[in-house]
Structures are given as C-alpha cells and as structure tokens.
Design a protein that fits this description.
Helix content of chain B: 55-70%
Number of helices of chain A: 19
Radius of gyration of chain B: 22 Å
Strand content of chain B: under 5%
Number of domains of chain B: 2
Order of helices and strands of chain B: HHHHEEHHHHHHHHHHHHH
Number of strands of chain B: 2
Strand order of the largest sheet of chain A: 1-2-3
Distance between the termini of chain A: 51 Å
Largest sheet of chain A: 3 strands, antiparallel
Number of strands of chain A: 8
Strand content of chain A: 5-15%
Helix content of chain A: 40-55%
Radius of gyration of chain A: 23 Å
Shape of chain B: globular
Strand order of the largest sheet of chain B: 1-2
Structural class of chain B: mainly alpha
Shape of chain A: globular
Order of helices and strands of chain A: HHEEEHHHHHEEHHHHHHHHEEEHHHH
Number of helices of chain B: 17
Distance between the termini of chain B: 36 Å
Oligomer: heterodimer
Structural class of chain A: alpha+beta
C-alpha cells in the first residue's frame, strides 16, 4: 500500500538504499575446495554474513564402519582427508590399537612416523598451492603439485596407490619399504629443500600476497579455542598445542626421541625464524598470513622429522612385523584418540562389544571445527576475502562430511 | 589506394573509397584476429613453460600450433546457451560490442609509416576513446546474464575501467605534448633515429610515466593482477560466467585484441613505434621514400619492429599474469586513485617543466642530430610561448579523462 511518503518523489530521492543480496558461493564454485556451499549475504562487495552449508559429500562412512571389521574400514578413512590419507589411516589404526593395547614393532613405529610426516608435507603443499589459486595466482599451485607428485611416486612405490593408500593399518603397515626407497626419499628431500625458498618468494613475501592476507580474517586466541579449532589454524593464532607433543601416550610414544619444535609464535618469534622471511609489518597474529606461514614452517619441520625417521628406521634390525588379521577380534570397551593430522586434530572413537566388528564408530573432524569459525572471520569482509579466509583454514570436505 | 583507384582505374570516388575501406577492414580484422589466435596459443605455451608443464603438444604436429584453431572449431560447434532469465537481446549483443570496440581501435593504429587503416589527426584520442567502449560490452554482458556473479563482475569492471581511464589519459597526453600532435603517425615519426630518441628515454619523467602507463594499460584491459571482472576464484568467471561457445570466444578475442592494442600503443607512444632501436634502414641509406622495392622493404622492417615491440608487451603481460596473485577491488581502486593518478599528474607537470628547461630531451637536447626540424612551439624561449601548449595539453587531459 502506497503511503503519502512513498509518493513524494523528493523523499525517495534522498532515501537511496542499496539492497542486500543473497549469493550462493558453491557447491560448484571454483574456490570452495570441493563441495562446500557458502551463502553470502552481501551489500555490494561487502559481505555481512556467510553461512556454510555442508553435507554434499556425505557417504555414511561412520555407519559403514559399524558393519566392517576395523581393518576393513581403513579404506574409508582414506577418503576422509583424501589429501593426507596416510594420517587418517594412522589415526584409526592407533585408536583401535589403543583399545586392543597393541604395540607395533619399533621399526614399524619409525616407518609410520616417516610416512605420516611425508604425507603432511604433501597435504601442506596442496593447501599452499590451492591457497595461491584462491588468491588468483595459478603457478604456485603447479609448483606445489610438481613436488607433491614426487611424494606420491614414493608412496606408490611403497604401497601401490597414489591417493587412497590404506598403507598404515591396524597392527602395523601392509608392507615394508622396497629396496632403495630410503635413498630416493633422501634425494627428494635434498632436492625439495631449496624449492621452499621459491614458495616464499612467490607467495609469503610477495607484496600483493601480503596485502591480500595480512590482517585479514583475524582469529583471536580465545575464539580459536572456543570454536575448537586445531592444527595450523590454532597455532596460527598463537596457541601452543600440537598433539604430537601434547597428545596421548600411545601417539606421543611414536615421536619419542624425535627433535622438533612446534611451529607457533612465542614471544613474537617463530622457531628458527632467522631462516625464513621476516613477518610482514601488517600481519597480525591469527590472520590468514600467519595460518599460511605456520603451514610453510611445518613443511620444513616435517622434512626434519622424515630425515630423523629415516635414520632410526634404517638403524632398526629385523622386519616391521605383520599387521593384524582382517577379522581380528577387538576386546569390549571403547577408545578415543586424537592425532595431529595436517589439517588439525583428527579424532576417532570406537566402541566394541568384543566381536571383530566395532559396535560404534565415530570420527571427529578438524576441518569441521575449523570451518565453523569461518562465519566469525568473514563478517564485514569483502567478497574477495571470502576465498582468502576459507582457503586459509585449509578445509577438506571429505573429512567434514565423511 | 583510393587515389590510385580514382586516378588510374577511373572508378567513381564513392566506389573507390568503399573498396579501400573494405580492403583495409578485412586486412586489419584478419591480421588482428589471426594475431589473437597466435597469442592465445602463445599464452598457453608460455603459461605451461612458466608452470613446468608442456602445454598443447599434439594438435597440428609440433608445439600444438593448431590448438587455438581447434579450440575455435570446438567453440563454434558448441550448443548456443542462454540463461532462462537473461535479457535476450542484450545478452546476444554484448560480445559484439566488446569485440567491435577492441577491433575498431586498430583503425587508427599505424603499423609503419603509411601502413595505417585511417590516419587520424586525433589518433591517440580515437584509440583511447574507442578502447574505452569495450567496457560497455562487459557491463551489458553482466547485466543481461541474469546471474549475480556476472553482475558483480560487470560492476567491478565498470568501476575499475572508468577509474583507470583517468591516469591512462594523463599518461597518453605526455607523448602528445612532446610531439605536439595527437596524430599517432606524427608521434612515431618524431622518435625516428636511435633508441635514445624514444620518448621513453626523453627525460626521467617520461620514463616514470611509461611505467604508470603500463600499470594502467594492464588494468584497463583486465589482465592479472587486475583481472577482477573475471576473477575465477571469487566470481566463478565474472561477467562471462553464463557465456559459452562462440559468444564467449568473442570476449576472449576482444581481450587479446585489447592486450595487443595497448601494447602497440605503448610502442608507438613511448618506444618509437616502427623505429627500431638502431636505425638500420637509415644506416643502409634507405628510407620509406626511396624507390618502390626499397621503400616497401623499409616499411616491412618498420612493421616488424612495431609488431615485435607490441608482442613483447603482450608477453610481459602474460608473464605478469602467471606470476602474481590478484589484487582486491578496494586495493585496485586505491592503486588507481592514490598512486597512479597523482603520479601521472606529477610526471605530466614534470614533463612540462622539462620541456621549458631542456626541450628535446636528454640526449637530443645536448647533442641534436643535424638536419632535424623541430616544431617551433617546442623550441620557444620559454615563458609565454610554452605556456599556451601547456594549457592546451591540460585541456586535452581533461577531455581524454572525461
């Protein structure tokens, strides 16, 4: 119904309002890392609110886990964080081993560290490259994938698969390394080390990159803890937590004797920060730049760990031992274990009634919590910042939806 | 050619001019369209090399040199799609507007001496103005697509291109002021001789303003890091999200045509046009006026020079695109309004002062080649004589900027 005010042209003239617009970013959008759907409430270029919608990749993996034996479920964990399938395998295998109070041989333990850290490098390379894509630069993505391919080659040699490995399994690993593998792995590390400088030149220190990431999407320490963020997202906010050091005994025992420093800023300094480009003046702790930088630091950290693991593994005599039978019975009870996957703390929960098939299986995804904080970070940013922020959380939809 | 037809073949004047126009149009259209195909192929190969890939290798035998043509055939054969809610007429019209604007500007672009579609006494003005029309096609496309992402792209393009026309106009006016003419042929002829005669090396101010021109030119043709209108990680594909097949390829051709145009314009305005760094023809005792064969040879040499410089410019744009991340829209506007425009204005004033203090540039001002005739008003004893052209030039700035 038109009132007198609406009819008065003078009033309309001075009442220029811009309308809000709801925009769907995804699920087929190029920068949503799979099938994430974000609903953006925008006013021009300014985003007032985003709302993530998940579930497009749901495959009932947990329910399937209640119909398979523990070892049979390993391939399903591959498909959770498919960019770091080895770490997913490890998380589930350790959880079941915790319930069974099973200990793998020392050699298998070191091999697990080696493989898990190599997988972490591969995952962070994808995270870094894809982040470049989110910011509109294509080349670092391919440089990252070029190096990742070499890691995948190594994995393929070890277990025959390039993406979904099912290599680490309950009770050990499916096979020992082929002859000459360690030499090729060392050759890769030597060749890869100087390339990290290129990544820093192309991204970390690039003026446009810094402009796009510094002081964008600042996640405060308190907010990060409140939302249950973990992994590089948590450490990027300055929280000193790493499951490899702070986790449960069965997991930290794997890293016994390994020297590594958690990649987190302490007293304004990152560990060994003289080796890396300085933190730009605009960057604030907890912003996209810091999350990205922590990932880059972890790549170097993991390389150190791989080198140490190679030494320890080759010092061990004997074999890695055989993994458990496919139909091995699990004692009644329950166990929960969180491991440090590349994306954050990946938790598995298993309840058993004494048969070979678990009674209940549950996965706690780190990407889920990390994504949950995105609406807080995106409030009031520009459209171009949305991919920059969501990309810096480095989520994988396979892990969120399971 | 028209004179030849009238005088020798005895054709009526209107017919002679029509035939001339058609011949010139067909020549320009085919050379530029063919050039665009080559550039598209080159971009794929260069991007591939930058990214450690191979790029097209099979189509057409070695180097995949037929790839663009094969793509063209594929695009022709694609289904003609239009979104349901689209404004049909505008949707169909938009690609042609962009394409025509980009290609029409070539009419006034001299390739060598008299190798020019139509020599205009306001050539610079014509090229910049017609190139500016390209934005209409993009805005139409974004508006008519009935897609929110397209609309975002169109609005960004409108804001960006209109803003960058201001500093671009100021940059373009500097060579105009130095040459005392808006005729592109005259401007290029004034830079004949060794490369020290190029306006790029005329004085420090022109050297700086050349780089401002490069920045603005890249921004006004929407190339990375200013490719916000199609920013694939944010806006899917921006204004051409809904386009496919031949219509999409028209946008593509327009983009590459514009890239080539701004590069060629830079070559004519700042890098001597068809005059090579070393005056080979002059050293050989040849000029465009000496005999038919020799004159033709000199023209071809000049054309090769210009095309070489323009291609170099295009290659630099490709190199930049595959290296840098994309800026955000507010940063793009800041670059224009806070840095490019004041810098261009300051350099413009600097060139004016330089013209009064040391007319003829650094090298020419100190040791002028014998026999070179310069415009009287440039040589004026300063003060009164030079203030008028400066005022004229300022007026031209205002015109171009508008």
């Amino acid at each position: 119904m038109a009132s007198a005010i609406d009819d008065d042209p003078r009033i309309i003239e001075f009442d220029v309002r811009t309308d809000e617009m709801l925009v769907n970013m995804g699920p087929q959008h190029p920068s949503t890392h799979g099938v994430l759907r974000l609903v953006l409430r925008t006013d021009g270029e300014v985003v007032s609110e985003i709302e993530p919608h998940i579930g497009y990749l749901h495959r009932c993996a947990e329910k399937i886990g209640e119909n398979l034996t523990a070892r049979q479920w390993i391939p399903y964990t591959d498909r959770m964080d498919y960019l770091a399938a080895m770490n997913m395998n490890l998380g589930w295998a350790l959880t079941v081993e915790k319930l069974m109070k099973y200990e793998v041989s020392e050699k298998a333990r070191h091999l697990r560290v080696l493989i898990a850290e190599l997988s972490r490098i591969a995952s962070h390379l994808v995270g870094m490259g894809a982040y470049g894509l989110d910011l509109g630069t294509f080349s670092p993505f391919l440089y990252a994938f070029r190096e990742r391919e070499k890691i995948l080659d190594l994995f393929e040699e070890a277990c025959g698969a390039r993406l979904t490995y099912s290599y680490i399994t309950v009770g050990g690993l499916t096979a020992d390394l082929p002859p000459g593998w360690l030499g090729r792995c060392e050759a890769f590390l030597d060749q890869f080390e100087p390339i990290i400088k290129e990544y820093h030149a192309l991204l970390t220190t690039n003026a446009i990159f810094v402009k796009r990431t510094a002081n964008i999407g600042v996640l405060s320490r308190e907010l990060a803890i409140e939302y249950g963020c973990s992994g590089p997202v948590l450490r990027g906010s300055g929280v000193d937590q790493d499951m490899r050091r702070d986790g449960e005994a069965i997991y930290t025992a794997m890293y016994d004797g390994y020297a590594f420093e958690v990649a987190v800023m302490k007293n304004g300094h990152y560990p060994r920060d003289h080796e890396y480009p300085p933190v730009p003046a605009d960057a604030v702790l907890g912003d996209c730049w810091h999350r990205f930088f922590v990932r880059m630091l972890e790549v170097v950290q993991s390389m150190d760990l791989v080198r140490q693991a190679i030494d320890r593994y080759s010092a061990c005599k004997g074999t890695i031992g055989e993994p458990l039978k496919l139909t091995e019975k699990i004692p009644a009870g329950d166990a929960y274990l969180e491991t440090e996957a590349p994306k954050g703390q990946m938790g598995f929960y298993v309840v058993s009634d004494g048969t070979a098939i678990p009674w209940r299986v549950r996965a706690r995804s780190s990407s889920f919590s990390n994504l949950a904080v995105a609406p807080e970070l995106c409030r009031g940013c520009l459209i171009a910042d949305v991919p920059a922020i969501v990309g810096s959380l480095d989520i994988v939809m396979g892990e969120i939806d399971r | 050619m028209a004179e030849f037809l009238i005088n020798s073949a005895g054709l009526p004047e209107w017919l002679a001019w029509t035939i001339t126009a058609v011949v010139a149009a067909v020549l320009i259209l085919n050379v530029i369209a063919g050039g665009a195909l080559v550039f598209i192929w080159a971009e794929r190969k260069i991007a591939a090399r930058i990214q450690d890939r191979l790029g097209p290798t099979r189509t057409g035998g070695r180097f995949g040199w037929l790839q663009s043509l094969a793509d063209g055939i594929k695009l022709l054969a694609k289904e003609d799609l239009m979104p349901e809610g689209a404004d049909g007429m505008l949707f169909r019209l938009a690609p042609y507007v962009s394409f025509c604007a980009s290609f029409c500007a070539f009419i006034a672009l001299p390739f060598a001496f008299d190798f020019v579609g139509q020599r205009l006494n306001v050539g610079v003005f014509f090229v910049v103005a017609v190139l500016g029309l390209e934005v209409f096609g993009v805005i139409l496309a974004g508006y008519a697509s009935a897609s929110k992402w397209s609309l975002f792209g169109a609005m960004r393009e409108a804001a960006q291109v209109v803003s960058y026309e201001v500093p671009l106009g100021m940059c373009v006016v500097v060579p105009v002021m130095l040459a005392g003419s808006m005729d592109l042929v005259t401007i290029a002829e004034k830079q004949a001789g060794w490369f020290t005669n190029w306006y790029l090396f005329h004085d420090p101010f022109t050297f700086v303003i050349f780089w401002v021109y490069v920045t603005c030119a890249v921004a006004s043709v929407n190339r990375a890091p200013f490719d916000l209108a199609e920013a694939e990680s944010e806006l899917v594909a921006g204004f051409h999200t809904e386009y496919s097949g031949l219509r999409w390829s028209y946008f593509f051709m327009a983009e590459y045509g514009s890239m080539f145009l701004v590069s060629a314009l830079a070559a004519v305005l700042f890098m001597g046009g068809w005059n090579g760094p070393i005056p080979v023809a002059k050293l050989l005792g040849l000029s465009a006026g000496t005999g038919d064969t020799a004159g033709y040879f000199v023209r071809l040499l000049g054309m090769a020079n210009l095309l070489g410089k323009a291609t170099l410019g295009v290659l630099v744009m490709m190199w930049v695109r595959w290296t840098l991340p994309r800026l955000r829209i507010d940063q793009v506007m800041t670059t224009c309004l806070k840095y490019c425009t004041p810098l261009a204005a300051a350099m413009f004033a600097g060139v004016m002062v330089w013209q009064l203090a040391l007319p003829g540039g650094i090298v020419r001002g100190l040791s002028r080649p014998a026999g070179e005739v310069r415009e009287g008003w440039l040589e004026g004893p300063g003060g009164k004589a030079a203030s008028r052209p400066a005022a004229d030039a300022a007026q031209k700035v205002a015109e171009v900027a508008r």
